[in-house]
Amino acid sequence: MCAHKVFAKIHLDGADFYEPEGVKLDEITCVIYGDPELVQVEVCGHMETVEIGAINEFLQDEGKDERLSYRDAITGVLNDHGFDVEFMEGSL
Fold first, then answer.
1. What is the H or E stretch that residue 49 is in?
2. Would you give the distance in Å from CA 69 to the centre of its chain?
3. How many other CB atoms are found less than 10 A from the CB of residue 32?
4. CA 31, CA 22: separation in Å to the nearest integer?
5. Among 5, 17, 21, 44, whose CB has the most other CB atoms within 10 angstroms?
6. Could you tell me which residues come within 8 angstroms of residue 44 by beta carbon, excluding any fewer than 6 positions away?
7. Closest CA to 41 of 85, 77, 3
8. What is d(CA 18, CA 38) in angstroms, rounded to the nearest whole number?
9. Distance separating alpha carbons of residues 71 and 50, to the nearest angstrom
10. What's the pLDDT at 56?
């Protein structure tokens, strides 16, 4: 399967997504919540929520020296839907 390339610009409230030609995509939306740390990504009407804070607490409890970031969460959801995401300069 060939992944569809998109570019993401993360800001304080979420992220905007663009085609390589610079056209903003309406079929992908993202909202970021700071407390609790959540990312909600909607792709073509299908909503997925990633509980970053809970995942990071679990990793810490397991003694793992890694943390999930907003970028990791967004990338994971979009990859599951066949998108290859690259983050634009200036993204959080």
1. strand 46-51
2. 9
3. 20
4. 21
5. 17
6. 27, 28, 81
7. 77
8. 22
9. 11
10. 95
3-class state of residue 65 by DSSP: coil
pLDDT string in tens for the chain (92-residue length): 567 999 999 999 999 999 999 999 999 999 999 888 999 999 999 999 999 999 999 999 999 999 999 999 999 999 999 999 999 998 87
* Cα R_g (the chain), whole angstroms: 14
DSSP at 51: E
Pick from 39, 14, 44: which is nearest to 28 by CA?
Answer: 44
DSSP string, 19-48: -TTSPBPSSEEEEEETTTTEEEEEETTEEE
Query: 81, 3 in Cβ contact below 8 A?
Result: no
Q: What is the DSSP letter of 2?
A: P
Contact predicate 76/89, CB 8 Å: no
